Amino acid sequence: MHTSDEVYHQVIWDPRLDPERFVMGIAERGAPPKRVALPDFVPGGEIPWHRVLFFEADGEIVWDRASHVDRLRETAAGKPPEPPPPVLAVPPTHRTAVAWIPPHELWPPLQHIRREHDRQIHRWPPHVNVLFGFVPEDDFPRAAPLVASALAGVPAFRARLEGVHWFGHREDATVWIDPAAAGEEPWARLRDALESRFPLCGGHSKGYTPHLSLGRSHDPHRLAADAEALLGTMTTRVTELVLLSRRGEEPMRVRAVVRLGTGDVRWAPD
């Protein structure tokens, strides 16, 4: 049987245990035991260890001096931690992605700009990448359940596409509209949830900037001003992500759709 000080220090230092759930029973001369919240107990203070009579976790006795009960490891408070979620540690390819595609009613002004400035318009639909690259398409049957599990805990959210910016390159710049104008937190949650399941994909979240590319230009100031005047502010809801892949010289196509908040998967027909 553990001693009272051993039980106390295990509760304090064991990451599986929450001290806030524990109460200690302290012997009082001529009175019923005094109940003390474990975090309020001061080791080495006025109360010696031999006066500690019992420990409770959520009202259940898990250690008792008189009856020799010692069930700390068997209680709900002492259960081992949940196993980590399954992962798919497969090297990524730039022929796949997990992305958000805006609803088709938002496409006309976006495509109007992309037709003139985006040489990738025939390879990609309008999109915001969440993970790029992603696992090869051959691994999608294994990947889709993990994406579904990750997104089941991320609710759908309202997004505002507003503000046109650019990433500078050596000779030109990529111009993009900001899909996170209402806040980056929901996009970061998506990214974090997916990175936890696909540790070799996407790099680190701190380097993630959600963006919807409009094209490349040697005069990004002018393109950004023209695009902002045309696009203004667009609002919508992000309710699902898609798994995209490109076969041969084909464009990126949707292979599966995963709904946020539910994790439902819908496979697209070939």
From TrEMBL:
UniProt xrefs under InterPro entries: Cyclic_Pdiesterase, MJ1316
Pfam families to which the protein is assigned, alphabetical: 2_5_RNA_ligase2 (PF13563), MJ1316 (PF04457)
Gene3D superfamilies named among the record's database cross-references: Cyclic phosphodiesterase
MJ1316 RNA cyclic group end recognition domain ranges (all copies): 1-65
Domain of life of the native organism: Bacteria
Listed name of the protein: RNA repair domain-containing protein
Organism lineage: Bacteria, Bacillati, Actinomycetota, Actinomycetes, Kitasatosporales
